[in-house]
């Protein structure tokens, strides 16, 4: 009986252990990497290893927004990255998000929302503009 127990213990001890690598830590998030490395657009593209898709750009912008929350007040290289700005402006799917995250002002000629929607009497919306024109013309009613 003792021999059986010893044999069992020996067997148990010799059982192959799962390799340590099998219990891998969760992959580092992009925003955590950004906080640690403060990489540029070119460096990010190099680690990506391919042309970024609109979804990749959206992920990068989200990571930048998240990194800012983790390190408030810190300046990130991506914020002033001309290549990222260009990509954002040329990619309709991420344009709106990118302009908010990167703080890009709408280009000249893009109408202000107040010129499209009525927000208050006498604003510059189409309805008020038309009304002002009609009053000026004295339309005879
Ligand atoms: Zn109006």
Please supply descriptive tags for the structure shown above.
single chain; 2 domains; 7 helices; binds zinc ion
SSE arrangement:
Blueprint: H1 2-14, H2 30-37, H3 41-48, H4 54-70, H5 82-90, H6 92-102, H7 126-137
Helix pairs in contact: 2-4, 4-6, 5-6
Zinc ion is lined by residues 118, 123, 125, 127-128.
Task: Give a written overview of the molecule.
There is one protein chain. The chain has 141 residues and is mostly helical. It folds into two domains: 28-102, no CATH class; 108-135, no CATH class. Helices cover 55% and strands 0% of the residues. The chain has helices at residues 2-14, 30-37, 41-48, 54-70, 82-90, 92-102, 126-137. Helix 2 (30-37) crosses helix 4 (54-70) and helix 5 (82-90) crosses helix 6. It is elongated. The protein starts with a helix and ends with a helix. The mean pLDDT is 84. The structure holds zinc ion.
Ligand list: zinc ion
Strand content: under 5%
Helix fraction, binned, reads 55-70%
Structural class: mainly alpha
Low-confidence stretches: none
**How far apart, in Å, are the first and last alpha carbons?**
114 Å
Oligomer state of the chains in this structure: single chain
Radius of gyration: 30 Å
Shape: elongated
Mean of all residue-level pLDDT scores: 84
Summed up, the domain count is 2
Would you report the number of β strands?
Answer: 0
